[in-house]
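S.,

Sequence below, as promised.
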Amino acid sequence: MWLAVVLAAVAVALVVPLGPGSLALLSAFAALQLGYTLGLKHVVLVDVFAIAALFVVRATAGAVAVEVPISPWLYLCTGLLALFLALGKRRAEHVLVESRETPGRRVLDGYTVPLIDQFVSIVASATIVAYALYTFTAHDSKALMITIPYVVFGIFRYLLLLHRQVAGEEPEQVLLRDLPILTAVSAWAVTCAVVLALD
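The prediction came back faster than expected:
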């Protein structure tokens, strides 16, 4: 309890010099996190949308803190990707519960694997489309379009692991340990850096 209070005080002290925008985003993040902990995580669909919203608030806070304008398309991509990973996590948890390998959280009673698969397919498609539209509008040269295959490959690879190995329960482990995904992310980052440097 006291540790949480101390950490909250430190966070506020660090954010206040960044301005009212950052402080407002910190408050929004804390309120949303508290809401998720106290009840939103038990509400079907609201749970995964809350997780996605937390990621968007983080991305917005980062942009505001460094005073760098970010395209609204990137906020959309961030939210959709977070929603994709959250749904994948729910799917993996559901599969494990059905196989009786682990006790399940209450919200899983409102989901089925086929339903989650439909949601995942929709969100994966929307993520690819949103990123593609971002690359069309981000710069005059349109050169960022060449990074689209990396994003498509990364999403497809994650889906493959999700269905073959039920790997989505800990998405951060997949993103940090899977060599093909790491390669795609590295290639995407390098390509983006080169395109932006030449633009």
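The mean pLDDT is 84.

Coffee later?
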